Amino acid sequence: MSETSPRHADRVLGTVHSPSSAAVSPLAASWCRSALHHKLDPESASPRERIGDTALADRRSLHQPLLAVAVPVLDEMFRTVGRSGCGVVLSDAEGVILETRAGAGDLDAFARVGLADGVRWSESEQGTNGIGTCLFEDQPVIIHRDQHFASRNIGISCMDAPVHDPEGRLVAALDVSSCRADHGPAMAEMIASLVREAARRIERDYFCRHFADRRILFLAEEAATGTALLAVDRDDLVVGASRGARLRLGLGAHAPIAPQPLETLLGGGAEPSFDDADRTVLRQALARAGGNASAAARLLGIGRATFYRRLAKAGIRA
After folding, report:
1. Who contacts 247 (Cβ-Cβ below 8 Å, separation ≥6)?
2. What is the C-alpha to C-alpha distance for residues 109 and 155, in angstroms, rounded to an integer?
3. 3-class DSSP state for residue 296?
4. Assuming Cys at both sites, which of 19, 102, 230, 251 could form a disulfide with 87, CB separation 3.0 to 4.6 Å?
């Protein structure tokens, strides 16, 4: 055991046993959870749990739609940060690592600290750490070296962001970690920004893939809640909302979305009527026919005179 490990454990336990420590910072609260709720020892050297290859393959299969959009993002992230000694990791919602990217010169260091496919990094098993604490708090975190709960993890810097599925549920954590001593807080902050943006991109791509047969509406891009997207069907009914949209519109973080009119959801629009429906159909036919009324009538399968009568009733001039 290194000389710094006992001092680190003493600092962690001193914070845990302080009467007001949990209220001081989110980090202190996580240390308290690790020791008091999860009953972990900061000096524990017990083997890290890794699920078997079959179980890992099953988890990857379960998350195939997520991985289909996440893998290209992981590859791009690694091309950006890999030369600085960072590795890129994606875990599921239980903290099991599904995918890793690391440079040849850093593979041994990552393997020694347990940043490998199939290893569990939940907060309940590893104490305060980037993946597990990000998942517990459902928000981006930086756990820099001695901010980890376990003494054996203080050589790692971790920058993490949560990933949510198209229904707004927490489904993964995106992590960039470094085992290099020269990786300081300033670099951690810079990389953390890249991690947050990459996580938002995965969420956007996952949502668009899931609702590929629907019209996707962009509402806003917010740093705290991500991209607000709505999925709308051919009848202008909202059938899906990203987590960002759910939070922005007060729909509940991951409650089921009952189909509802787009205009109603966005706070506008009159009561529906058959006249409005006719007007929409007539205008679309005219647009498709380039403004030619005879061609528009043929598209709708009605006579030219009937088409003009309907135009007049809807208040449309052709």
Report:
1. 225, 228, 253
2. 10
3. helix
4. 102
